[in-house]
Amino acid sequence: MMEIIKRADMVTSLRLKARLSEEADFVISPNTMGLHWSDFDQFETLIEKGKDAARISLDQLKTSINQKQTIFSKMKEWLS
After folding, report:
1. What integer pLDDT is reported at residue 51 of this predicted model?
2. DSSP annotation string for 12-41
């Protein structure tokens, strides 16, 4: 019974993550190497993987932000 509860929780969690990712403007997905967020002994490894993914995604994020600028922000920039 506990195994069924764990699996149901995992399925729910995966669906929620997928839905939130679809709704997000930008998602950075680090390679967690199959580690779980609660693997506290691997904390530094997970942080480094997150930093690496952020560095790689930075240019893409900047481009995405620039594309989403509104006409008002462009006018503000022009008037400055």
Report:
1. 95
2. HHHHHHHHHHHH-S-------TT--TT-GG
